[in-house]
Design goal:
By secondary structure, this protein is an alpha+beta fold. It is 30% helix and 11% strand. It has 4 helices and 6 strands. Helix 1 runs antiparallel to helix 4.
């Protein structure tokens, strides 16, 4: 049987659900972008960052190990995310930017090996829809009591 909660908790519960979905979406996008990225040495693919500030493309591959020892066009590549995806609060941080910090980000995005534009125009829209679709909240008409979500009880309602 569904856990009964007071109807007064619905706003808090919905905010928690939206926050969770918001963070899952950001995490999914940040983890998908390396796969859609050009992967010459792996530095660009490893340099995606989620932040409340627009990430700046300032990081030179030559200054970061292990990528500094890899030659462009060589056989070595290493893809390991350089930035942890933080937790965001959709009310306090409604805008989250996901960008690349590699110095050559503009040319990498324009590369024929880049699948970023296709990812953003295609799969990312599906991820947004999936992350925010209704997940099991069922609303039922209860006569003159109006609409009440299943799994919630009205404050003061007899539970027996």
């Amino acid at each position: 049987m569904a856990k009964k909660r007071g109807i007064g908790n619905i706003i808090t519960d919905l905010e928690q659900q939206i926050n969770g979905d918001y963070n899952i979406l950001i995490e999914m996008i940040a983890s998908d972008l390396p796969g859609a990225s050009p992967q010459d040495t792996g530095f660009f693919a490893s340099s995606w960052k989620a932040s409340t500030q627009r990430p700046q493309a300032r990081d030179d591959r030559e200054k970061f190990a292990p990528w500094s020892k890899y030659k462009r066009g060589g056989r070595q590549r290493d893809i390991q995310p350089r930035f942890k995806v933080p937790t965001f609060n959709y009310k306090k941080q409604p805008s989250v930017y996901i960008g690349n910090t590699a110095l050559y980000a503009n040319s990498a995005l324009a590369s024929s090996n880049s699948g970023i534009a296709q990812y953003i125009q295609g799969e990312m829209g599906s991820l947004v829809a999936e992350a925010f679709r209704e997940k099991g909240r069922i609303f039922a008409l209860t006569g003159q009591q109006g609409v009440s979500p299943v799994g919630y009880t009205r404050v003061g309602e007899n539970l027996l």
